[in-house]
UniProtKB/TrEMBL annotation:
Name used for this protein in its record: ABC transporter ATP-binding protein
The keyword Nucleotidyltransferase appears for this protein: no
The keyword Transport is assigned to this record: yes
Origin: domain of life: Bacteria
The organism of origin for this protein: Thioclava litoralis
InterPro entries membership: AAA+_ATPase, ABC_AA/LPS_Transport, ABC_transporter-like_ATP-bd, ABC_transporter-like_CS, BCA_ABC_TP_C, P-loop_NTPase
Domain ABC transporter: 2-250
């Protein structure tokens, strides 16, 4: 579904993404891991149109989408969430969901003045869809709560719900577990798996929680210093010496050696 070819992004003399080539298969939940500063979020930003690449190409279903704006990509079904949730804090949870679909009739002055029936019908449909999303995510009890009052994990669920209000093809989730307690993280994980299996969503997930990655993702892509380091199944990645060195740290490697010697 997503093909990235020799993608580079420089900020001055710093190579944040340095010649990355990868594929994200349709229907997969692909994990993207690596140490802080590896270039993971920058890679997401370039694919999702937040930053234009210095060079290289990005394809969605064979179409060259390199450098397209986030708005254009949104209409093509490519969505991206952020480490810090971007909710409308003064609106309710349900209203946040209803704001997502583009091209609503109520957005134009002409329709607001002369097509009120059409607007009411659209709002009724959006309300129904929003309630279905809330039911799916098991947060219907929060529908009338101001989004700004939600916990970090609840805001991440709301962001996931926002992707369900449109016909998303692929969703890039950036550190969905950041600041989220274990119970809510499990709820988020369950929702991702259900969306993948029941609705055909494709996901690419940045996350530092390896248990979460191991439960959800296959394959897992590892980045370090802006480059691709390894790709494979979670178990294989966890045994890769280069990954242990770069991502998990030499300390863990040394502990394993010490434990072996002690035996």
């Amino acid at each position: 579904m997503i093909r990235v070819e020799n993608l580079k992004k420089q900020f001055g003399g710093f190579h944040a993404v340095d010649g990355v080539t990868l594929n994200i298969a349709k229907g997969s939940i692909t994990g993207l891991i690596g140490p802080n500063g590896a270039g993971k979020s920058t890679l997401f930003n370039v694919i999702a149109g937040v930053h234009k690449p210095t060079s290289g190409q990005v394809f969605l279903d064979g179409e060259d989408i390199t450098g397209l704006s986030p708005d254009s990509l949104f209409h093509k079904g490519l969505l991206r969430t952020f480490q810090i949730a971007h909710e409308f804090p003064s609106l309710t949870v349900r209203e946040n969901l209803m704001m997502v679909p583009a091209g609503q009739s109520g957005e134009t002055l002409w329709s607001a003045l002369f097509q009120r029936k059409k607007i009411r019908e659209e709002e009724a449909q959006l309300l129904k869809k929003a309630d279905e999303v809330l039911d799916f995510l098991t947060i219907s009890h929060l529908k009338d709560e101001k989004a700004g009052n939600l916990s970090g994990g609840q805001k991440k669920l709301l962001e996931l719900g926002r992707t369900m209000m449109v016909d998303a093809k692929i969703v890039f989730l950036d550190e969905v577990g950041a600041g989220v307690n274990r119970t809510l993280l499990n709820t988020i994980g369950d929702a991702i798996v259900r969306l993948n299996k029941e609705r055909g969503y494709t996901f690419c997930v940045i996350e530092h929680d390896m248990d979460f990655i191991g439960r959800l993702c296959d394959p897992v892509i590892v980045m370090a210093e802006g480059k691709m380091l390894a790709t494979g199944a979670p178990d294989t990645i966890m045994q890769n010496e280069a990954v242990i060195e770069a991502y998990l740290g030499t300390g863990l490697k040394n502990k394993a050696v010490v434990a072996t010697e002690a035996e």
